[in-house]
């Protein structure tokens, strides 16, 4: 709809107010899918800041409250949003998931699915750098595994940080099968760079 061009004219606080007024954080998921498809058709593209505000308003509450696998509508909306705005989505969504205490099993699975199926290579690197900024935990190992499964070429400094982190955590994860699989994956994928 032409009215959506207003999204390009709003300041971040105005956009938050508009999202609140439209109740986008609680709108039915089928509408969420349609709204995200409208965003893709918007010209010019949203600014990074506006996309980050929308990512927070549209998805954050839904993702953090997951207690079972996400619906196909939610996944379709996320995939649609990711196709153009994966960087701001990662910044908003992953940062919140990483700071969330506890297991967060459904959130972790969702992040793995986004990494495996939706994110652009530069966003996959962003996910890796964000995960390596926080203390490593068992719940984050599958996300790292998903990143490695993409078999992207990593910048040397990021690969060095990954290897260093894994080395430093070896004692803490001495009995973890997920950690052992992760180390094996690193050694297999990057054997020429890891001495």
Structure in words:
The protein has a domain at 2-119: Alpha Horseshoe (Serine Threonine Protein Phosphatase 5, Tetratricopeptide repeat), CATH 1.25.40. It has 9 helices and no strands. By secondary structure, it is mostly helical. The longest helix has 28 residues, at 72-99. Helix 4 (72-99) runs parallel beside helix 6 (121-132), helix 5 packs parallel to helix 7 (141-149) and helix 7 runs parallel beside helix 9 (177-189). 66% of the residues lie in helices and 0% in strands.
Remind me, CATH topology of the domain at 2-119? Serine Threonine Protein Phosphatase 5, Tetratricopeptide repeat
Per CATH, which architecture of the domain at 2-119?
Alpha Horseshoe
Provide the residue-averaged pLDDT: 90
Annotation, overall tally of beta strands? 0
Gyration radius, rounded: 18 Å
Spatial shape: elongated
Strand content: under 5%
Give the helix tally.
9
Return residue spans where pLDDT drops below 50 for at least 5 consecutive residues.
none
Gap between N and C termini, in Å? 56 Å
Secondary structural class: mainly alpha
Q: Sketch the topology as an H/E string, one letter per element.
A: HHHHHHHHH
Classify the helix fraction into a percent range: 55-70%
How many strands, what sense, and barrel or not for the largest sheet?
none
CATH class of the domain at 2-119, please? Mainly Alpha
Briefly say what this structure is:
The protein is 66% helix and 0% strand. The chain has 195 residues and is mainly α.
Strand-helix topology:
Elements: H1 12-22, H2 29-41, H3 48-64, H4 72-99, H5 105-117, H6 121-132, H7 141-149, H8 156-168, H9 177-189
Helix pairs in contact: 1-3, 2-4, 3-4, 4-5, 4-6, 5-7, 6-8, 7-9
């Amino acid at each position: 709809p032409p009215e959506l061009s207003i999204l390009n004219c709003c300041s971040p606080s105005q956009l938050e107010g508009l999202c609140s007024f439209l109740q986008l954080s609680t709108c039915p998921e089928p509408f969420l899918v349609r709204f995200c498809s409208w965003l893709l058709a918007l010209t010019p593209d949203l600014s990074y800041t506006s996309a980050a505000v929308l990512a927070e308003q549209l998805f954050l509450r839904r993702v953090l409250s997951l207690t079972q696998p996400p619906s196909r509508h939610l996944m379709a909306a996320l995939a649609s949003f990711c196709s153009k705005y994966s960087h701001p989505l990662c910044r908003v969504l992953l940062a919140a998931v990483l700071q969330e205490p506890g297991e967060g099993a459904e959130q972790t699975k969702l992040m793995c699915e986004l990494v495996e199926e939706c994110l652009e290579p530069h966003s996959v690197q962003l996910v890796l750098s964000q995960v390596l900024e926080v203390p490593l935990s068992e719940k984050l190992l599958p996300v790292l595994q998903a990143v490695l499964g993409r078999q992207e070429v990593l910048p040397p400094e990021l690969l060095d940080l990954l290897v260093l982190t894994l080395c430093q955590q070896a004692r803490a994860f001495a009995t973890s099968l997920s950690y052992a699989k992760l180390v094996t994956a690193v050694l297999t994928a990057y054997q020429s760079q890891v001495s």
